[in-house]
Amino acid sequence: MSLRLTTAGESHGPGLTCILEGMPAGLHLERDEINRDLARRQLGHGRGGRMKIERDQVEVTGGVRHGGTLGGPIALQVTNRDYANWEERMNPWPVEAAVPEVHLPRPGHADLVGTEKYAQTDVRNILERASARETAARVAGGAVAKAFLRELGVEVFSHVTQITSVKAPHKDELTPASFERVDDSPVRCLDPHASTAMVQEIDRLRKANESLGGVFEVRAFGLVPGLGSHVSWEERLDGRLGQAVLSIQAIKAVAIGDGIEVAGVPGSQAHDEIFYDERRGYYRETNHAGGLEGGMTTGAPLVVRGSMKPLPTLTKPLRSVDIATHEPAEALRERTDSCTVPAAGVVGEAMVAFVLADAYRRKFGGDHIGDVRAALSAYEERIAWRRG
């Protein structure tokens, strides 16, 4: 048993759809929880004017009845309110009006390569699907995955650790309680001093017509040891997590735990020594590995970091080429955000939650959520794992 998440839709089309297959029956869902994550994806200092238009809400069109999953594919839809302003340009069917093509690809975007690959003359046929607006559908699906994980004692959170050169102090001893007020920060940063400096950095560079990148961190608590496997490359959980987070638009690097820092220290400082006592069982006093060893969870908190490049749509466009005339031109300029690292963290939560939910489905199966819990309990008893 495994999960599958598929999305459809364009940035300014009628809406976005998520199909989530493989969830067990009997899982209780709360509409407000899904909508809360959709709203969190729209948070963050540096967002553009579209956030004043879109107020994302989920509509469930399949797989759920009276708040409970039925065991079949779950269909989630998010309407694009801005479609009212784009109906002629993005209508699924032919329109009478002449709609001009877009011929100005942006450096750093999918625009140019996409037109070559798919034999298109209009950049909009590429940029609409490549847009990060698509992640609204992923967040809706990820909210369902998070509901499933909560039933198994797992919680997933995110926070921003860096925006351009401004870095928050490293925090090792984080717990679920540490994240209770993270969304109160305008940049979703846990450190108030760094949060203020990040806001100032966004304001400074936005006035200079720049966009900004940064780093977010996702942490998952309560994971049972042994999710994933060492026996084949495609079963290693760190590989699955890397692919999932790198699939988020503008993410260029992923680290598990201290995956970057340990490259510069000797082995005695890189690995997590193992201890045992009767009350706790096996445990580690450090977590340099980020909760993964040999492609498998260790039972320690999972730590995944995503590094995001500055957005490619700039208010002062970079140099490009008109693909119709091959003449030099400025890249396309559209309404844009200057910084979306806080929102990317919420998308990171969704993708990490999906991979973890898939790992639980692969290991424990079950047609009903009660079956999953029973299989998990039997496994925890076999390995004598003590939660927390």
What's the overall geometry?
globular
Helix content: 25-40%
- Could you give the distance between the termini? 27 Å
Count of runs of 4 or more consecutive helical residues: 9
Number of domains: 1
The counted number of beta strands is: 17
The CATH homology group name = Chorismate synthase AroC
Order of helices and strands: EEHEEEEHHHHEEHEHEEEEEEEEHH
Mean pLDDT: 95
Question: What is the third-level CATH name, the topology?
Answer: Chorismate synthase, AroC fold
The biggest sheet amounts to:
5 strands, antiparallel
Class, according to the CATH hierarchy? Alpha Beta
Tell me the CATH architecture: 4-Layer Sandwich
The share of residues in extended strands comes to 15-25%
What features would you describe in this structure?
- The chain has 388 residues and is α+β, with helices and mostly antiparallel strands.
- The protein has one domain (4-382): 4-Layer Sandwich (Chorismate synthase, AroC fold).
- It is built from nine helices and 17 strands.
- The strands form six sheets. The chain has a five-stranded antiparallel β-sheet. It has a four-stranded antiparallel β-sheet with strand order 1-2-6-3, with helices on one face. It has a two-stranded antiparallel ribbon with strand order 4-5.
- A hairpin with a 6-residue loop joins strand 16 (319-321) and strand 17.
- Helix 3 packs across helix 4 (124-130).
- The chain starts with a strand and ends in a 6-residue tail after the last helix.
- The mean pLDDT is 95.
Task: Give a topology summary.
Elements: E1 4-9, E2 15-21, H1 31-41, E3 58-62, E4 64-65, E5 68-69, E6 74-79, H2 87-90, H3 111-117, H4 124-130, H5 135-151, E7 155-163, E8 166-167, H6 192-207, E9 214-221, H7 237-246, E10 251-256, E11 274-277, E12 281-284, E13 292-293, E14 296-297, E15 302-308, E16 319-321, E17 328-330, H8 341-364, H9 369-382
Antiparallel strand pairs: 1-2, 2-6, 3-6, 4-5, 7-8, 7-9, 9-15, 10-15, 11-12, 13-14, 16-17
